[in-house]
């Protein structure tokens, strides 16, 4: 089976998919950017499940590069897959942690039986990951990760993000040679 990768400019909280990936912080208790938008639009059911996760398996928070699912609340999705991206560092290569966010999110989506998944550009907001590099890592990782997901949709918030992902996608679509 082939996985289709699509790019959309818009609001990830408005997507109709099986699973929406949340660029969460390790506390799982909401925050700014994508995380805050998902919690606001999805409503209190998401936060309630996140609190239960913190009280059980993730007392110290969700580790960077890992992923866990909750209900999607009022979102037009069945689940939210929360993943914690790394903060960008010029001194330390953390690209393996960023790639892990995408691999782990797809692993969780597969366990749930999700066929359509919407991803944001993880770590590119307050975590300051350069957009072009984030796009290269994200697309390269989802292309090389075996999954039963039929459509991976990158939902990019603005022109700059969409253009960076479109460039990275077209570079990856070219035949090697």
TrEMBL record:
Family matches, as SUPFAM superfamilies: Macro domain-like (SSF52949)
Gene3D superfamilies, per the entry: Leucine Aminopeptidase, subunit E, domain 1
PANTHER family in alphabetical order: GANGLIOSIDE INDUCED DIFFERENTIATION ASSOCIATED PROTEIN 2-RELATED (PTHR11106), MACRO DOMAIN-CONTAINING PROTEIN (PTHR11106:SF27)
Name of the protein in its database record: O-acetyl-ADP-ribose deacetylase
CDD domains per the UniProt record, alphabetical: Macro_OAADPr_deacetylase
Organism: Streptomyces cadmiisoli
Pfam families assigned: Macro
Domain of life: Bacteria
């Amino acid at each position: 089976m082939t996985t289709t990768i699509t790019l959309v400019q818009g609001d990830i909280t408005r997507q109709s998919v099986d699973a929406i990936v949340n660029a969460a912080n390790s506390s799982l208790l909401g925050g700014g950017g994508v995380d805050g938008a998902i919690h606001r639009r999805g409503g209190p059911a998401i936060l309630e499940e996140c609190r239960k996760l913190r009280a059980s398996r993730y007392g110290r928070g969700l580790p960077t590069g890992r992923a866990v699912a909750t209900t999607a609340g009022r979102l037009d999705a069945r689940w939210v897959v929360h993943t914690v991206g790394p903060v960008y560092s010029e001194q330390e290569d953390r690209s393996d942690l960023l790639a892990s966010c995408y691999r782990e999110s797809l692993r969780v989506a597969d366990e749930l039986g999700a066929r359509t998944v919407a991803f944001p550009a993880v770590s590119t907001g307050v975590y300051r990951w350069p957009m072009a590099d984030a796009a290269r890592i994200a697309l390269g990782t989802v292309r090389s990760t075996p999954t039963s997901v039929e459509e991976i949709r990158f939902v990019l918030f603005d022109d700059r993000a969409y253009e960076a992902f479109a460039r990275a996608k077209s570079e990856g679509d070219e035949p090697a040679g």
